[in-house]
Amino acid sequence: MLKKRKMILFVLLVFVLMISISIYFQIDNKDYKSVSYKKFIDYVEKGNVETVYLSNSSKIKGKLIDGTYFITDNPRSESFKESLLTKGINVEEIEQNTAIMNLLTLLLVLVSFGLIGYFLSKNTDKQAQREMAYMSSIESDFSNIRTITFDDVAGNEEAKESLRELVDFIKNPEKYEKYGARMPRGVLLYGLPGTGKTLLAKALAGEANVPYFAVTGSDFIQVYAGLGASRIRSLFKKARQAGKCVIFIDEIDALGKKRSGNVSGGNDESDRTLNALLTEMSGFKGNEGIVVIAATNRIDILDEALLRPGRFDRQIEVGLPDVNARYKILRLHSRNKPLDKNVDLKKVAYQTVYFSGAKLENLMNESAMIAAKNNQKTIKMEHIDKAFYTVIAGEEKKDKSTISLKDKRVTAYHEVGHALVTKLIAPENRVTKVTIIPSTRGAGGFSMNIPPNSMYQSKEDIIKNIKISLGGRAAEEIIFGKNKVTTGASNDLQKATKMALLLISRFGMEESAGLVSYETLLGNKLGSNDFIIKKTRDLLEKLYRETLELLKNNTELLEKISKHLICNETINEEELNLLISPETLS
Ligand SMILES: Nc1ncnc2c1ncn2[C@@H]1O[C@H](COP(=O)(O)OP(=O)(O)OP(=O)(O)O)[C@@H](O)[C@H]1O
Ligand SMILES: [Zn+2]
């Protein structure tokens, strides 16, 4: 109520202020022509004057018959008015009024400005106070001690393994110090939403049995100047007072976005907050047993300053769960729920491709609600089926969880195409993982480590890499036909084209084009040169044909691995090597 009245008063004030300003500027905004007194008398004699505005000031104003306004010296004589009147000229005495009006409006303007300023400053104080209060309420959370452990996180084995090392560091920092080991101060967890990043941070605190402090990056953006930085400082102060602890900063991208080239584009306030954070982090002595965990969905937009050594130098991807992990997560979240015997969680796991952990949790929760609403003793398969549609309803079409089995097959053959070509033509390269689960790094799920131990790339290496890039499209064409190939290869084609172009125009490796550095000759016109385009095209064509041939000769293997991938969604290095090993070939 009080707030509403204040609001009305405020609006009224602004209104009055605006009116006064307009009055102030409207008075006397006419264009006055300055004339000499002699000329003025001349006008009077000729009967050209319509009105004279009498005043006490040194000048008087008036209006001629033709409408022009004039200003001239004031004679200040007693008979002046009378003489004008006898000549049939209107005389108006308005001067006193105008002066007072002027003064009054000026005063009003000043007072209104003052009041508005007062209101604003008062409100700002309140807002700042509120935010400060909010801050202290979200910062610390001691309740998590020992309540959440790694057992509460299903799947994400690599991430858990990485964090497990930190548990010992938090518990015994002295041990590491003795060996002169510099332990990571900051760990960055990155991955799609709902994949369990927050959960992992809490579990780390739980495992190490230390308090957990959490803030969210986006909370800092609307904050008044300087508040963000001081918030960071007080957060770290609190954390230090608590001794060993885990500090969790969610949505770190809100604080540490890449500075977009031009300096003016950056946001000063978030810069200041980020700098405060970096300063605090470099202030650690290393033996304090404090670990800062940050999380983001967008590692690609993070400022590099954040990722430098001594900051968030350990980066862990938290990915979407594959079918096995989904099964574990589903089991975990039905621990406290009465599941019917007819429920097959394996089947549910299989149906929930591209579901995040959070979504799976949501699915089990919805199922329980439906069962409860229908007064059923147990949660049945039909409840889960119903919940499935509730969970995916209203989601954007492009959401991965609604992708059909057909898409899943296309992705599988495409990725296996890359992997198989790699294994067949460049077995010295490691394929560490093949997956159809998209990650933050890209839609494709094929990761390859090129042996790093050579300084130069040979022509052969480049040719191989081009073929590996083309392997995805080639596999699609072989399995689904020429007209069914998909847009999934666009990135691959980009890469292949770039490599082919360099091979011809920079490295002089294409015999029919010679040793000429076309890059030097043509500069940025390279891409519009017909000869270069033709050479690049011919090379890609030839290599694509060879890649097709290679995969056609190994269709059985392609089928076998792809089917395995469709079933399991990920294949790790060992499994892949086993599937391809010579025994299976024969
Ligand atoms: N691997 C997992 N195992 C068990 N539960 C999980 C897992 N991943 C997510 N969940 C469930 O989903 C909930 C939300 O996950 P969490 O908040 O940790 O995700 P997040 O990655 O931090 O998401 P965001 O990026 O949106 O902040 C968890 O509280 C948990 O119930
Ligand atoms: Zn591809």
Automatic annotation (TrEMBL):
Cofactor(s) recorded in Swiss-Prot or TrEMBL: Zn(2+)
Entry's localization field: Cell membrane; Membrane
Residues at the active site: E415
Molecular-function GO terms, alphabetical: ATP binding; ATP hydrolysis activity; ATP-dependent peptidase activity; metalloendopeptidase activity; zinc ion binding
Transmembrane segments: 7-27, 99-120
Sites where the protein binds Zn(2+): H414, H418, D492
The keyword Cell membrane belongs to this UniProt entry's keyword annotation: yes
EC identifiers of the protein: 3.4.24.-
Membrane topology: Multi-pass membrane protein
A single GO BP: cell division
A GO cellular-component term linked to this record: plasma membrane
Domain AAA+ ATPase: 183-322
Enzyme class, broadest EC rank: hydrolase
Binding residues for ATP: G191, L192, P193, G194, T195, G196, K197, T198
Family matches, as SMART domains: AAA
Manner of cofactor binding, per the entry note: Binds 1 zinc ion per subunit.
Main localisation: membrane
InterPro entries xref list: AAA+_ATPase, AAA_lid_3, ATPase_AAA_core, ATPase_AAA_CS, FtsH, P-loop_NTPase, Pept_M41_FtsH_extracell, Peptidase_M41
Similarity-based family: Belongs to the AAA ATPase family. In the central section; belongs to the AAA ATPase family.
Assembly notes: Homohexamer.
Role: Acts as a processive, ATP-dependent zinc metallopeptidase for both cytoplasmic and membrane proteins. Plays a role in the quality control of integral membrane proteins.
Protein name, entry field: ATP-dependent zinc metalloprotease FtsH
Organism: Caloranaerobacter azorensis DSM 13643
Gene giving rise to this polypeptide: ftsH
